[in-house]
From TrEMBL:
Source species of the chain: Eleusine coracana subsp. coracana
Task performed by this protein: Is involved in the conjugation of reduced glutathione to a wide number of exogenous and endogenous hydrophobic electrophiles.
UniProt KW Ligase keyword: no
UniProt protein name: Glutathione S-transferase
KW Cytoplasm (keyword) present: yes
GO BP annotations listed: glutathione metabolic process
GO cellular component: cytosol
């Protein structure tokens, strides 16, 4: 459980993979917190969010004892450093290994997630195909890294979950959604058997299951957003 005197609030939206990774960090560290859902980031952002993250005005934001921390990767690192006495360390203790973890975390966001995101926003089949090709290239590179990084163990952190597991873990609901909705497997037994096995092992952990939203809820959420966008376009 959390340490006495710690007041934690998380500003976010439940479907965001960036918010999910912060929730995963809090879950694996055994920290309770107040979840404050930002209902409509496109049209109306709360005063608390604007005050807490005036530069980017985005979620997630973790407010710890009144002080805001922004950007999901930095928040996960902050949680690890602030609650060292609960759970195991997420980031390696060795400075070189810590730097390597941060490098691959940036790779996940800048290459893998970015290509998946662009594919979902692409307006032409050619753009979608190019984005998917980039995603597969990123997955293949990450597969090789996992082979070396995990040393035959189930997680990036070895026998236990580490920093990179949480960074990539936030994408698991998106991966399931893409497969269910579009029939596209980002991780599969041919291209990335190790990452596919990793995803299954990570998703089966109690601390992960308590956080990761179901693919059904994401599909319904997507339908709601599409209906809302269509109604707004019709009104305008």
């Amino acid at each position: 459980m959390d340490r006495g005197g710690d007041d934690l609030k998380l500003l976010g939206t439940w479907a965001s993979p960036f918010v999910i990774r912060v929730k995963l960090a809090l879950s694996f560290k055994g920290q309770s917190y107040e979840n404050i859902e930002e209902e409509d980031l496109y049209n109306r952002k709360s005063e608390l969010l604007l005050k807490s993250n005036p530069v980017h005005k985005k979620v997630p934001v973790l407010i710890h004892n009144g002080r805001p921390v922004c950007e999901s990767q930095l928040i996960v690192q902050y949680i690890d450093e602030s609650f060292r006495n609960t759970g195991h360390s997420l980031l390696p203790m060795d400075p070189y290994e810590r730097a390597t973890s941060r490098f691959w975390a940036a790779y996940i966001d800048d290459k893998l997630f970015a290509s998946v995101f662009h594919g979902g926003r692409a307006k032409s089949e050619e753009e979608k195909a190019n984005a998917l090709k980039q995603a597969y290239t990123s997955v293949e590179t990450l597969e090789l890294d996992f082979r070396e990084y995990s040393k035959g163990k189930p997680f990036f952190g070895g026998d236990s979950v580490g920093y990179l597991d949480l960074i990539l873990g936030g994408m698991i609901p998106v991966v399931h959604y893409i497969e269910a909705h579009y029939g596209i497997k980002i991780f599969d037994s041919t291209r990335s058997p190790l990452l596919k096995s990793w995803m299954e092992s990570f998703g089966a952990l109690d601390a992960a299951k308590s956080v990761l939203p179901s693919v059904e809820s994401l599909i319904e959420y997507s339908k709601m957003k599409q209906a809302r966008a269509a109604a707004s376009a019709a009104t305008n």
